[in-house]
Amino acid sequence: MTEYKLALVGFGGVNRALAQLIAERNQQWKTELGLTLKIVGVTDLFLGSIIGRDGLDAAQLASLPAAKGAFAQLPGGHAEALNEAVIKESGADIIAEATFTNPVDGEPATTFCRWALEAGKHVVTTNKGPIALHADELKTLARRNNVAFEYEGAVMSGTPVIRLAKQTLAGSEMSGFEGILNGTSNFVLTRMESGLAFAEAVREAQELGYAEADPSADVDGYDVRLKVVILANELLDAKLSINDVSCRGISALTLADIDHARADGARWKLIGAASRNADGSINASVEPRLLPNAHPLAGISGAINAVSFNTGLLGAVTVSGPGAGRTETAYALLSDIISLHNTVASAQE
Ligand code: HSE
């Protein structure tokens, strides 16, 4: 049995949900997974920070009010986010990074990952920014410092995609993928099929916690573009940056377009795709596509995501599941921790 000391960086919905899971399930994990998690630090730009080297009360953390500087209410807590101290000096073995995605330069999350890896700490993250923009550098840092760097939650939250494709489908001769990779825009399209106006549907997605801080990142396709870059680079060994992916979102689609599609036995879906050409080059795009109702991705409704991997040996392999959500994304962090635990355990055998 291994007890990992964990520091949480960013304490919005995802890491708060992880704290709640730890409060409820640590004993179960001890038996089922051979590991337990002890939270030794938390930092958040809005809520402040706290370090407790002997372990903090996960249930108390999970119920902290979402008020500015709220960590100052707890003994030993601060109203300021002491990010560097929590990452480097809390005694953590693992840093769970779940701050907001910055699609421009990946900051400050990338700096948080760098600090952690340079200090010899494992990093698990759900953040698309560092992975889409700085994955090579961060992977090299992790290797050099002999620690794990895991990021399953960057695409489709806890639904297995990256490890499934890289590990379980290794050798399947993957040549491309196409997917519904944004819960908000798929939810909006589904609600529009019931006659709701675009703006109202976006507002509902915000209320349900699916949308990014700026929902135009969802409906204009930029969120999917980050995920296409991540999947193409991870699965097809592409070297794409975001400007290599053409990008068009769903904001120009009208209720009339949706109605015409229905009359034709089809549905509009926002599709992120990449494929390898015969000469080895990669085509990648984000665009609304009109799919016939019989298409495997046409029946994916609401905030559910799905991706179809095109493989040489198996044909198309499709996985669908939640692509967003607090507990769903916290599960991605747990799956990363289980993965690094298995790697550490087999290295010790
Ligand atoms: N805003 C994103 C979505 C969250 O709607 O899918 C997960 O990346």
Characterise the protein shown here.
The chain is an alpha/beta fold. The chain has 2 domains: 2-158 and 327-348, Rossmann fold, CATH 3.40.50; 162-322, Dihydrodipicolinate Reductase, domain 2. The protein has helices spanning 13-33, 58-62, 83-89, 109-118, 128-144, 162-168, 183-193, 198-207, 216-219, 222-235, 255-263, 326-348; strands at residues 2-9, 35-44, 48-51, 77-78, 94-97, 122-125, 149-150, 174-180, 246-247, 266-276, 282-292, 304-311, 315-322. The strands form 2 sheets. A 7-stranded mixed β-sheet has the order 4-3-2-1-5-6-7, with helices on both faces. Strands 9-11-10-8-12-13 form a 6-stranded mixed β-sheet. The radius of gyration is 20 Å and the shape is globular. The protein starts with a strand and ends with a helix. Residues 182-184, 210-212, 218, 223, 323-324 line the site of L-homoserine.
Integer tally of domains: 2
Major sheet: size, sense and barrel closure?
A: 7 strands, mixed
| Cα shape | globular
Name of the CATH superfamily of the largest domain: NAD(P)-binding Rossmann-like Domain
Indicate the CATH architecture of the largest domain. Answer: 3-Layer(aba) Sandwich
Element-by-element helix/strand order = EHEEHEHEHEHEHEHHHHEHEEEEH
Question: What proportion of the residues form beta strands (DSSP E)?
Answer: 15-25%
